[in-house]
Amino acid sequence: MNMSDTQGFSAAEKAAMKERAAELKAPKKRMSKAEKQQAARADLEAKIDSFEGSDKELAQRLHQLITSTAPQLEPKLWYGMPAYALDGKVLCFIQDAKKFEARYLTFGFNDVARLDEGTLWPTSFAITALEETHLKMLTDLVAKAVKN
């Protein structure tokens, strides 16, 4: 793509980059590993609490699902989104609808998850409601992601 054909980054993308820069600058250098993990979890939970409408409830349910299925994952913020890392690399994340003006919350996996199935597989899900069958499917995917 020719750069002259674009307008650059959107306001939402710029905001996400600023959030990421702030996350990296956060004063956690003198904290113990346990204190850093506790602070990261508190930051993530505060971010979920800031979500609006049904996104808040959906994110809380996803957070519960992820932490109970894979307690070894480290909660953190990633570009201003709740995320869960394995060995320091983001495995999955929750993106509220408002972040990029979408009409649904997104739950996604990064390539670290290795959810490969043949030559085509989903890496993110648009969510407007969570039913038991959805919870089971997502639980299985999170379990598979941390196992691979």
Automatic annotation (TrEMBL):
Extent of Basic and acidic residues compositional bias = 15-40
- Please report the stretch or stretches of sequence annotated as the YdhG-like domain: 56-115
**Where does the signal sequence lie?**
none
Question: Which portions of the sequence form the region Disordered?
Answer: 1-40
Q: Which domain of life is it from?
A: Bacteria
Q: Which Pfam families match?
A: DUF1801 (PF08818)
Indicate what this protein is called per its UniProt record. YdhG-like domain-containing protein
